[in-house]
Please model this.
Amino acid sequence: MERTGRPRDPTIDGAVLDATADVLSQVGYARLTLEEVARRAGTTKPSIYRRWRSRPELVLAALVRRLDAGSIRAPESGCVVCDLVAGVEVFVTAFRRTPPGVLGALFAECGGELREEFMSTLFEPARRVVGEVVERAEGRGDLREGLDRDVVVDLLGSFVHYRALFGHASMDASEVVVTLLRGMVADPTRFARRKHRHDLSLS
Amino acid sequence: MERTGRPRDPTIDGAVLDATADVLSQVGYARLTLEEVARRAGTTKPSIYRRWRSRPELVLAALVRRLDAGSIRAPESGCVVCDLVAGVEVFVTAFRRTPPGVLGALFAECGGELREEFMSTLFEPARRVVGEVVERAEGRGDLREGLDRDVVVDLLGSFVHYRALFGHASMDASEVVVTLLRGMVADPTRFARRKHRHDLSLS
Amino acid sequence: MERTGRPRDPTIDGAVLDATADVLSQVGYARLTLEEVARRAGTTKPSIYRRWRSRPELVLAALVRRLDAGSIRAPESGCVVCDLVAGVEVFVTAFRRTPPGVLGALFAECGGELREEFMSTLFEPARRVVGEVVERAEGRGDLREGLDRDVVVDLLGSFVHYRALFGHASMDASEVVVTLLRGMVADPTRFARRKHRHDLSLS
Amino acid sequence: MERTGRPRDPTIDGAVLDATADVLSQVGYARLTLEEVARRAGTTKPSIYRRWRSRPELVLAALVRRLDAGSIRAPESGCVVCDLVAGVEVFVTAFRRTPPGVLGALFAECGGELREEFMSTLFEPARRVVGEVVERAEGRGDLREGLDRDVVVDLLGSFVHYRALFGHASMDASEVVVTLLRGMVADPTRFARRKHRHDLSLS
DNA sequence: CGATAAGCGAGACGGTACGTCAAGTCTTATA
DNA sequence: TATAAGACTTGACGTACCGTCTCGCTTATCG
Model:
């Protein structure tokens, strides 16, 4: 049996998502009410609940729509530095598209499978792109062996997320990338001789 | 004239903060209600509102109490690696003491001076400790010159925050520290010769 | 368009009015709280406020329900004395059905159109019945001419109300009726001859 | 033992009673708050509670002060009609001096010994004056025998109270007095012959 | 082509929690 | 030592919004 009954008005989906994004950017997540969203979208609460089961689910959908993950492309310049800088900017773009604080508040309300959807739709796309950049750099032998790719990706991603979220300092993509690539120690060989014998040598 | 009027019942403060922390860890920030907190603390809403002007202010106070920032001490082993690993563990401790997601949700509702208090009481203590570790390492000449100390601190702190928040992967303090200290490139000298001429040399 | 929206649960109306009457008779008007009424009725405050705009409006509705004005019938025995005694008992019944003091307290809080409703639903029915008794007695020529019917009705009603309210003395319907019918002077003719020349004669 | 300690500020009593009467006439009994009274009297709540144990006790005191029962004098013209008309006006004066509705609302909140005080200070003075008028008229033989003096007094008082309270009709003292004195029946003798044999004869 | 089924706007529903007002009490400093 | 002053704890307030339900209607597929 096919779907019967009156089909959903397809214009409502977009209107509601747009209204949600508007309200979100104007009053934030905590003060977003479905009644206001419905009012702005020119529809009613039941029509919203028919499409999204809960408030976080709706907001997630609105953010995903704004993020437009499909448009994210991994840079391929052949240069680790350039690619990673571009990769960091992918994160910057991703986080900039969501009003500040919404991500944290939304995440806090997402439980169970909604949390999984949150991760896979809002977080994975950017992480995957940067992961590919690292992977290619490894393939070219540009990176030292033994790196945990997830750690590298999260070091970049978390930094951007952190500063975008708390906004206590600005972001300079190339400085972070260079710091990560070069390392921080003045002389790696010094530490191998000391009593703790940490291995900081390059291989 | 001195202080007049009935003094506040000092036991209420503690009971409310404890109840807040309990509710927070059981139902999360979004479903925390002042009525439930009041019920568990054996008091009433106005008594809470007299002490903390709003829900975020109360939760912030409860988290600060849990964090016990005064107890945080900067490690001083004389070894950068050990100190930084210990420093990362300061972050881990700090974020582990707050239920997952609360920090982001709380921050989203903090505006104005409350946001400043959020930063200075919940974030700065751990950042300051790690900052001191880095500063001492620089003083000993263990780190290369030109590092932006804030970037280093946030690279460590954000990573921990990120993984504590989203919980998508575990944390290995020493791996992150080693990655940051050693750097990621296989051969820093390769990049100076190439067309983009990124300077990855050590000085 | 016709009536839309979810229809009201009709059982709540009755449960709330019953609970109101119960609370009223147990703690009086001043200590009646909507929260207690809601608790006893097994519902909540907003459901009450949706039906009655204010506390006096609710109490008025509960009293009107108790009074059951529709059941009040004018006696028609053909005898003024019997009819008036029965009429006084209509007042007695009306005031006895409301807990003492409630009427005065409620009236004090009724303003504007609520006051009009108070008068027309709680007072007029009994006054109208007694008014009809007086009217019929006049038609039969049982009463002397020139009587102000409203004064007569209020003389009977106020006496009952007064004693029911302040409870300082019991009520004997026939004594009041006889006093009013017979008059109080020993010899009406005496007063016409005196210097003030008050006319107490019978026509 | 004498009274020891700091003496009460005697000016506070009057200031509070005046403020109470003011608030009462402006917002009514239901919306009278002790905080507003204290504010207007230039004092504080505990100073009020030290003098009057409760809100109704305070309001009662304020009304008694307004009523000034000591000034009420029984008229002694020697004419029943004149005296009773003057007596009714004593009632009118008494009820007119209290804002409409306050009496009922206050009475509803008075329980136990406060109720007794309410009766003896607000009600008895006027009733006693009219009672004396009736007593003297009886002594002169102006009234028929067998009258219950309390019924007579309450017939007059309740009528005034009733119309003052509910305000649905104006008051004409002489009409009420004449109605009561003359009685209402057209021919008293008619009723003795009928089957019910009510005794409406004059002795 | 009529019956069936689902979605629609509309809006009120039952109910949780809110943030505030004012009652009456308690404590400290003052006279 | 009892007062005046002020801050206290607490019950109840009236409201906003949640997520659901009912209505009368419209739009589609199915028999």
